[in-house]
Design brief:
The protein is α/β, with parallel strands linked by helices. The protein is built from 19 helices and 27 strands. It folds into 4 domains: 254 residues, Rossmann fold, CATH 3.40.50; 137 residues, Orthogonal Bundle (Glutamyl-tRNA Synthetase, domain 2); 127 residues, Beta Barrel (Ribosomal Protein L25, Chain P), CATH 2.40.240.10; 99 residues. The chain has a 7-stranded mixed β-sheet with strand order 12-25-26-27-23-24-13. Strands 21-18-19-20-14-17-22 form a 7-stranded mixed β-sheet, with no helix packed on it. A hairpin with a 4-residue loop joins β18 and β19. It binds one RNA strand through α5, β6, α7, β11 and α12. Pfam families: tRNA-synt_1c (PF00749), tRNA-synt_1c_C (PF03950), tRNA-synt_1c_C2 (PF20974).
RNA sequence: UGGCUUAUGGUGUAACUGGCAACACGUCUGAUUUUGGUUCAGAAGAGUCCAGGUUCGAGCCCUGGUAAGCCAACCA
């Protein structure tokens, strides 16, 4: 499929440029390099979609490479979860690689570096080495080990590898430049001693290579053409290139690193460390808690691979820090599920509805559409009877005319069933409604084809038959944090912003019996409520549904709901809001034209001047006056205001001090046009 | 007090070699609707961080500022 695309993100542009400069497209090769020390999250999805997307676009291989150089933090569990998530997203890697597969090669190259006098063993403490390193604004100094001979270094390094030294006692460092403005170039560590079993190499090694030494060389070994990573590695690029310089064979492809901004999502955190803290602190139930921004959490919540890929696509790639609003993610999943989710009915907060004229004891099977968006989706059966549950908030004894739901004396449609009219309510001693009594128009059954069945009524309600309903648990989720960017506050921990009401469990919701056969992969729309999916905690006796996301709800927006949630709409500055529509647009037009006024000349200029003058006929002085305050730089706008002012004065507007001040400021301006307009008024 | 990077509607991204700042989300109208969903039609909202400069013309080029992010782990 050829994608219609006239603009590339800057990474794609780099590749386009490389190709144009003669780089052969069959040498294109990418990689996704996770460290197996945590679960993948929605931020990783950006990198996954970028790398694998590039692979698909150019039909180039994309390796999955586990960057497993730290046996203290990495585990097989994470390897399995990461592979599962990538496959679930629908991507196929060319080769499954591990940095640990290159340990021997890396070691051999390190020996070479020592022999070339480019690396040395340092036996100082971490503290001492840190102090010698200097600070970003002051250069570092050489330590006593820096001048050791090649033979001494070779011997020491061999003993490190042989396990003769304690963990932490010696390191191998590159010998670069202790005075470099780039701290990473001040003799970075290549190897450290870690006496710990590795998930793949076991106890074969007790020295492990560091990230910088490993990553670029792994790219080189795999002949990755474009090594894409996030911005915080920008500084590492100099080191990446330095290492390559030491061992690069010109006959082979030389990888290059490029950096893009990591993606943040509003109202959540996105670092593995913080996510781990949520898991270990039991704030959530696990990495796949449906409130987590992990791929596995989103999957359990009911998100689809398509929705996540769409989200990555819409979010784009750039080099600036940003926080993408969750509403975009929600849009993506709604859009996907709207097309595919099976429509069913469930009542979360029930109140009993009795249809007094429906034959007592009678039940009938109705037909319900599976998905009105998909004509081929078919129907399913739905039992109806004279005693139903409806949503408590769908009834009000007396309500304004904007309430489209059930009230006393009003008609509404029961979805896929009959039109009913509210007649009376039954209340308990404390005044709570326990039953609503209504009558049905028995001719109005949906799909019956009668005239009554096609009558228009204002509202439609979802319902379940009490006798036939199945009970199930429903879990509703809200954002995990109350702050838009919980980890952006220097003085406060992100944990202080935890939303205490991020999980709401409804132990007994009532659902149509169709749902008893639901499976984990099914996606449902509970009509009028939102999208739901079965949770893995479900058993055949106790079904558990997760709410993926609610439907858009323009009714809820109108009602300033007393909800304590963090959904407060941000105030938007709506300038000029108090002014009549027509006049505002005339002034706006003037501003628009005037903005570019100084760019014009000749006929165009004359035309613009005439347009402004004409529009000014519809502008009042009160509207115009604020423009007198326009910054001196915005000459065009001031000229426009001057022209408009002249029109108003001709119409009989009295001169006041503001007007005089504006005119004299115009006369004193450097811009000739402005001076001319001001002169024109002066007379 | 050093270095690197970034700065475009509320949010996220576009704008080719300088040429009327575009798209999506969100917001607001209206129509349609057996989901207050969907769909459809429309609107509001940005002088492109600031100050200068070059140019007929600057978001883009030049100079100088400002702000934000990253950089001193034997983490990746």
């Amino acid at each position: 499929m050829i994608e219609e695309r006239d603009s590339h993100n800057f990474i794609e542009q780099i590749i386009v440029d490389d190709l144009a400069a003669g780089f052969s497209s069959d040498k294109l090769r990418f990689r996704f390099p996770p460290e197996p020390n945590g679960y993948l999250h929605i931020g990783h999805a950006a990198s996954i979609c970028l790398n694998f997307g590039l692979g698909e676009m150019y039909n180039a291989p994309v390796n999955l490479r586990f960057d497993d150089t730290n046996p203290a933090k990495e585990e097989q569990e994470y390897v399995d979860a990461i592979k599962n998530d990538i496959q679930w997203l629908g991507f196929q890697w060319a080769t499954e690689c591990y940095s640990s597969d290159y340990f021997q090669q890396l070691y051999d190259w390190a020996i070479q570096l020592i022999k070339d006098g480019k690396a040395y063993v340092d036996g100082q403490s971490a503290d001492v080495m840190a102090s010698q390193k200097g600070t970003p604004s002051t250069p570092g100094v050489a330590g006593p080990f820096r001048g050791a001979s090649v033979d001494e270094n070779l011997a020491l390094f061999a003993r490190m590898k042989a396990g003769e030294f304690e963990q932490g006692s010696y390191v191998l460092r590159a010998k670069i430049d202790m005075a470099s403005p780039n701290m990473l170039m001040r003799d970075p560590i290549l190897y450290r001693i870690v006496k710990r079993a590795h998930h793949r190499t076991g106890n074969d090694w007790c020295i492990y290579p560091m990230y910088d030494w490993t990553h670029g060389e792994s790219d080189y070994i795999e002949q990755i053409s474009h090594s894409l990573c996030t911005l915080e590695f920008k500084m590492h690029r100099e080191l990446y290139d330095w290492f390559l310089d030491q061992l690069y064979d010109p006959a082979l492809l030389r990888p290059k690193q490029r950096e893009f901004a990591r993606r943040n999502l509003s109202y959540t955190v996105m670092s593995k460390r913080k996510l781990l803290e949520l898991v270990e602190g039991k704030t959530v139930t696990g990495w796949d808690d449906p409130r987590m921004p992990t791929i596995s959490g989103l999957r359990r919540r009911g998100y689809t691979p398509d929705s996540i890929r769409k989200f990555s696509d819409l979010s784009g790639i750039s080099k600036r820090d940003s926080v993408t609003d969750v509403s975009l993610l929600e849009y993506c999943i709604r859009e996907d599920l709207n097309k595919s989710a099976t429509r069913v009915m469930a009542v979360l907060d029930p109140v009993k509805l009795v249809i007094t004229n429906y034959p007592s004891g009678k039940t009938e099977m109705l037909e319900a559409e599976n998905n009105p968006e998909d004509p081929n989706s078919g129907t399913h059966e739905l039992p109806f009877s004279g005693e139903l549950y409806i949503e408590r908030e769908d009834f009000k004894e007396d309500a304004g005319n904007k309430f489209f739901r059930l009230t006393l004396g009003n008609e509404v449609r029961l979805k896929s069933a009959y039109i009913i009219k509210g007649e009376s309510v039954v209340k308990d001693a404390s005044g709570n409604i326990t039953e609503i009594h209504c009558t049905a128009d028995l001719e109005s059954r949906s799909g019956s084809g009668t005239e009554a069945s096609t009558r228009k009524v204002k509202g439609t309600l979802h319902w379940v038959s009490i006798q036939h309903a199945i009970k199930a648990e429903v879990r509703e989720y809200d954002r995990l944090f109350l702050d838009e960017a919980p980890d952006s506050h220097e003085e406060k921990s992100f944990m202080q912003f935890i939303n205490p009401e991020s999980l709401k469990v409804i132990k007994e919701a009532y659902m149509e019996p169709f749902l008893k056969d639901a499976s984990l992969s099914d996606k449902f729309q509970f009509q009028r409520l939102g999208y739901f999916t079965l949770d893995k905690d479900s058993t055949s006796e106790n079904l558990v549904f997760n709410k993926t996301v609610g439907l858009r709800d323009s009714w809820a927006k109108q009602n300033p709901a007393p909800s304590p949630q963090a959904n407060q709409p941000k105030p938007q500055n709506n300038q000029g809001g108090g002014l009549p529509q027509g006049q505002r647009s005339a002034l706006n037009e003037i501003q628009k034209i005037a903005k570019k006024y100084t760019n014009l000349s000749g006929e165009k200029l004359a035309g613009a001047r005439a347009d402004i003058a004409k529009l000014a006929e519809e502008v009042s002085y009160e509207e115009l006056e604020p423009l007198f305050q326009t910054a001196a730089k915005k000459v065009g706008t001031r000229i426009g205001a001057m022209i408009a002012l002249s029109v108003l004065l001709n119409k009989g507007q009295d001169r006041n001090s503001e007007i005089e001040a504006f005119i004299s400021a115009g006369l004193a301006d450097e811009n000739e046009e402005l001076v001319n307009e001001a002169k024109g008024i002066k007379n």
